[in-house]
Amino acid sequence: MFYRSVTESHAQRQRFRRARPVIALAGVAFAIGAIVGANHTASQAHALAARFVAAWTKGEYATMYSDIDAASQRTTSISEFIDAYQNALTTATATRLQVTGKPHDGQDSLVAVPVRVHTRLFGTLALSFGLKIVGGGGESAHIAWSRSLAFPGLRPGELLSRHTTLPRRATLLARDGSVLAEGAATGAGQRSSPLGAVASAVVGSIGPVPAARRQALEAEGAPASSIVGISGVERALDDRLRGTPGGELLAGQRVLASVAPAAASAVRSTVSPTVQRAAVTALGGQLGGIVAMQPATGQILAVAGIGLDSLQPPGSTFKMVTLSGVLQAGIATPHTTFPYATYATLDGVKLSNANGEECGGTLELAFAVSCNSVFAPLGVKLGAVRLVAIAEGYGFNHEPGIPGAVESTLPAASQIQGELDVGSTAIGQGEVLASALQMATVAATIADGGRRPRPTFAFTSKSSPGVTATSTAVARTVRRLMIDVVREGTGTSAAIPGVTVAGKTGTAELKTTTACSSGKEAASAKEGGSGGSPEGCQGTASEASNTDAWFAAFAPALDPRIVVGVLLVKDGAGGATAAPVARQVLEAGLQASS
Length: 594
Hints:
Radius of gyration: 37 Å
Helix content: 25-40%
Largest sheet: 5 strands, antiparallel
Number of strands: 24
């Protein structure tokens, strides 16, 4: 028994010895599995961090929000989440974001993702996001989010902020290099100018940041308390006059980056002191606006009154547009003849000529004397679609190119219904609204062979590419007919001895009167053309207080150096009042450029 027992015990020991390597191997396998599992979890955490930061560089905030944990989502709505990231990028003046390396384990069990933030103000920042991954591995893994993750480089509890200031505002120069405006922008109003009050209309004013520009200026680094350009050249060239802000980008109390303010050099504008004086003098105390520019470059030489920021019906100056459309469509030629009449009947309504006068004959003559009974029906033949298209080619329904200047408009073709509406639009009434800048631009387009220049206050030797509004052949024909307007038509008051002037008058009616007939005829009085009252409204509708006077012109007609747009509010007929004003400005411009 003893022997057997010893033998069995020995056998058991042998079996135990043989089993130990198996147990050892199982232990190794368990350890390897634990390591692989840990590495797999780490890999998933890195993948989650990489996805989160990649979405940040693309502004894919909904994707980012889906990767934060439920606890974070309960305390922060998606709109608050998005605002936190967008506000941080604005604070940093960020322009471009990029991931610069792979995720790796960082301090405090965080996953670090290196990034680079390119900014307008603070240069390029090399930073890292430190992300805390919670919830285990697989789909249960999420990011524990806090507002310190709204921008890379922030530590727990830190928020991003900045303190910036603007440098001294740059001196504004005229085109001849003389000072146009100078002094620090320390408050609302106007800076000092050697030209005094003569410069005010064109230089404009400075003041606190308008609400509409606050977000854009904040993204450029300007502090909320900035004094910036509000109108005129101060507004148009504000980006160059402001200089570059300086200050600190802060993570809590820590400075992430800093930069010194940099004042801009003196900025040269297109304004001619000679032409500016002439425009202000010619306008006098009259309510109205004048804009003078170079047709080839679009450089604005002068602005007086409400030349940039007021809209009125352009009246018969709009016939430059209608004539272009008619010629371009081949509906008529300058030699096409039309019956003499005192009115045209559209939709059963009699649309009269100015003061009920009779006119007709060739298209050339009808344009020279601004004959509504010819141009209103021509507008109907052209149709709303083509009429609106040619007007938009000339700049209507488009930003004028000068920051702060108003946009001139007319309705969409689908909203111009019936013959009366189309005919009224064709003679610059109905719902057509234009600024003096716009009608100067129309004349400049004709002067420059059908290419619409982009108006600018920025002095440069390069011409803007412009937009083709009509063909060179059409523009040349319209120019020839505009010469006839000044030689023998309604614009003879703009004639300059020894200089060929091309121009177009306009007399836009502002309202109907109780003396008009009722029904359609009374309704159309408001929509009539230049002096175009319905029958029964003559006399009342043509009173000076009920009409705006317009004139648009350029000279010398065959080699244009200056174009002028004039609007005189409630001042009678364009040929009688606006044309002489334009002549004074044209003469000054020709003298200055000789």
